[in-house]
């Protein structure tokens, strides 16, 4: 994946460094750092990793404590209606993944074009 794993690990490490006071308690912050990585939108895909896997956005812990409009709307639904909406969301997950794939390919092309521009004209690069 051309360093994607290393980049992801680097981001997780940066998040943990900002959250910890003492290096010995990094393992206590790991679940929160992973949640942050899984629920943040990636520039390369235009979606969150969580939504690409499960077909819907994650419910954040703060949304349970202070209900958001999405949580309030889902709480008002009957169980049958909720199941129907969830089934429709799962049917659209392949479309969402395909859209993310196309977005990723466009992103790679933009990055390659930017890289090639810098390498073709080294005198103009700073």
UniProtKB/TrEMBL annotation:
InterPro entries: RNaseH-like_sf, RNaseH_sf
Annotated Gene3D superfamilies: Ribonuclease H-like superfamily/Ribonuclease H
Gene Ontology terms, MF aspect: nucleic acid binding
Domain of life: Eukaryota
Protein name: Integrase catalytic domain-containing protein
